[in-house]
Amino acid sequence: MMNNLNELYDAILVGKLEDAVKVTKIAVEEGMTPHEIINQYMIKAMEEIGSRFEAGKVFVPNLLMSARAMRGALDVLKPLMQGQVDSYIGKIVIGTVKGDLHDIGKNLVASMFEGCGFEVINLGVDVSSDKFISAALENKADIICMSALLTTTMNYMKEVVAAVEASELKGKVKIMVGGAPVNDAFAKAIGADAYTSNANAAVVMAKKLIAAN
């Protein structure tokens, strides 16, 4: 079985959706748990593609293909994870802020979160503070994750933080920000709990924030 699962790792790494799905189905039939498959193979493959990306060895299309293959494999596992209260590390509401229509980076982060055991509510692009808040309340989210790719839209993050502070979510939900123009100093200035520069770092930080809660 191990060989098959190494094929899963490879399929995710090179972004082969059909192969990833096929191997995952075989693994499930042979009695492997979703946890084992996700933790030992899928996450490792996504971490590897993430570090190759950071090293400049692969590019955004490669990342997206890997994320797509991983999501396909995850879809096979999701029905098996229903009802396992402990099967998710936490819940994350994620979106690109109002006025901004970029979603490649945000979707990549969302995929990494999913592949690493979080439940993700992806609100898409051009998301208002009201939308972030109602989704976080409705889903009892642990973290609100905001992305922006433009210097003009990143300032809207401040409005979302202020709206959360003024809502019943105050103190109950952590706020993470990311995107090309955003940095640590900006995150601190607007009162966000954390800034991360890439998808791998976002997963590590989200785990820390939830553990601290």
TrEMBL record:
GO terms for molecular function: cobalamin binding; metal ion binding; methionine synthase activity. Keywords: Cobalt, Metal-binding. One of its GO terms (cellular component) is cytosol. Residues 1-89 form the B12-binding N-terminal domain. Residues 89-213 form the B12-binding domain. PANTHER family: METHIONINE SYNTHASE. Belongs to the methylamine corrinoid protein family. This is Cobalamin-binding protein.
